[in-house]
């Protein structure tokens, strides 16, 4: 398995897609029930393959990933050849993960306690795995509004 297995809730959301996935392998509902009961290891493999397919599709589409922690905000833009990252760091005790902290940042962008950094992050041999790693570390796929805002602000 390349990524991670989808959660029960994610499988429930993708119920029809999973049925289509099984059908593409000529597995009927009755056969799937038998596989789960008679060959649970095969069922596990099917769940893993489907999970990887879903992740691959999601990661192919993901262009922006945000990771916000109490003192830092890392905004990634997944370009073709590399990722561009904008980092916003606070040098004070403001917590960006709270509404008050985020509002403080919005009102004090040019404060001496706010530092902006930019970098280019090279991909390893697997661009999607790099994106997945960021998500596993707490990043969230976004539409890129924060990235675009800060990109305009500092460039």
Describe the overall structure.
This is Histidyl-tRNA synthetase. With 155 residues, this protein is an alpha+beta fold. It has two domains: 8-61; 64-154, no CATH class. The protein has helices spanning 8-13, 15-24, 29-38, 40-61, 99-107, 127-136, 145-154; strands at residues 64-68, 72-78, 82-90, 114-122, 140-142. A five-stranded antiparallel sheet has the order 4-3-2-1-5, with helices on both faces. A hairpin with a 3-residue loop joins β2 (72-78) and β3 (82-90). α3 packs across α4. The longest helix has 22 residues, at 40-61. The mean pLDDT is 95.
Itemize the secondary structure elements and their pairings.
Blueprint lengths: L7 H6 L1 H10 L4 H10 L1 H22 L2 E5 L3 E7 L3 E9 L8 H9 L6 E9 L4 H10 L3 E3 L2 H10 L1
Antiparallel strand pairs: 1-2, 1-5, 2-3, 3-4
Protein name: Histidyl-tRNA synthetase
InterPro entries: DUF6495
Organism: Oceanihabitans sediminis
């Amino acid at each position: 398995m390349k990524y991670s297995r989808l959660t029960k809730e994610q499988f429930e959301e993708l119920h029809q897609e999973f049925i289509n996935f099984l059908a593409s392998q000529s597995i009927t509902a009755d056969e799937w029930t038998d596989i789960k009961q008679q060959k649970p290891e095969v069922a596990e493999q099917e769940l893993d393959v489907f999970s990887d397919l879903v992740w691959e599709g999601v990661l192919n589409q993901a262009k922006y990933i945000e990771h916000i922690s109490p003192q830092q905000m890392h905004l990634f833009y997944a370009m073709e050849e590399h990722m561009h990252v904008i980092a916003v760091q606070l040098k004070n005790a403001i917590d960006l993960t709270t509404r008050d902290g985020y509002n403080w940042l919005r009102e004090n962008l040019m404060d001496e306690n706010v530092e902006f950094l930019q970098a280019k992050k090279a991909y390893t041999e697997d661009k999607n795995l790099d994106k997945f790693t960021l998500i596993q570390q707490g990043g969230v796929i976004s539409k890129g509004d924060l990235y675009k805002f800060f990109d305009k602000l500092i460039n």
